[in-house]
Amino acid sequence: MLNVNQATKNAWLNNEIKTYRVVLNDEEIMSSKIYTESMKIDESVNDFDSLHFIGCVPSRLEIEIREIDPAIEGQKIQVYAKAGNTTELCLFTGHVTSANTDAEKTKVKIIAYDKLYEINNMDVSEWYRTRVFPMTLKQFRDGFFSFLQVAQE
Question: Can you tell me the distance from the alpha carbon of 109 to that of 102, in angstroms, rounded to the nearest whole number?
């Protein structure tokens, strides 16, 4: 969940002019190249009809951008948004998993996932075997998050 001030909330609720910014591998994509109407971000804790305690669902970004090289798989992508004269918000940070050009080769459809996508496929067994028990749950969590390179709040 994003922590935003009241002025930012009001700007979004009042449909003030929104601007979007995409950064691909630390290079900003000009806003004129972004098809903002194509942007879709899916976030969910669970994608089942009932609650399952087996993991979390990674966030997914889908966006179309024109005039870029489609050879961008694996690159870091970030999406920012701003309403009116308020604080810019980071809506998504992840890595590109696919980038395909359309039939006319004028735009690239990008699909990216956040850190959870990578974590879901990690083998943590070696890390776990090196733990020395007993330890507190906080010590376990801190060590685990450090191993996964995930920041905690």
Answer: 7
